[in-house]
Every structure is written in structure tokens, then in C-alpha cells.
Amino acid sequence: MDGIYIFGYDFRFNGIFYWATRTLDMKPKFIFYRFGVLSNPEVFASANTDGNFVRWYKDGLVVAELGFAEIMKMVLGEAY
Fold first, then answer.
1. Minimal CA–CA distance to 66: which of 76, 55, 74, 75?
2. Which is higher by pLDDT, 7 or 17?
3. Among 1, 52, 51, 61, which residue's Cα sits nearest to residue 26?
4. Residue 46 in 3-state DSSP?
5. What is the DSSP letter of 36?
6. β-pairing, 53-58 with 48-49?
7. Model confidence pLDDT, tens digit, residues 15-35
8. CB 38 within 8 A of CB 56
9. Nearest residue to 77 (alpha-carbon basis) of 24, 37, 9
């Protein structure tokens, strides 16, 4: 698997009390229209977050966005 498409996300609650890191393999999501643009390595590498959303950019414009709840659902599945 090409490691460039692994998305790491830190979950930090209550500062020092809970800190876990999870990784998501985003490559299977590229078949969907919403995330197809992320197959471009430059776009994938442009990920930025404000703590609530992760956004990817192309030419300075947001081309894909994931919210915290969506990320949690991808990590935990329907249990979230």
C-alpha cells in the first residue's frame, strides 16, 4: 500500500487525560466523487485542520472536507 494516502488523526480530550492516535486508509474512498480529488498526492498532502474539520485544498480552494463526526464514524464504524 502506498503510505502517502494514510491519514493520521489525533484525538485529544481533556488535555492530558486522554490521547490516542488513529490512522485511516483513505485510498478505498477515492472511488467516490467526494474524495476522488484526494488521489492527487499534492492535494492529499495539503490537509489542514481547525480541530473540528479536516480540509484539503487545490489552488487555494477547499476541494474536500471531513468533519470530526465523520472521522469518528470511519474509525469506530456504526458503534459511534
1. 55
2. 7
3. 1
4. coil
5. G
6. antiparallel
7. 444 456 667 777 777 888 888
8. yes
9. 24
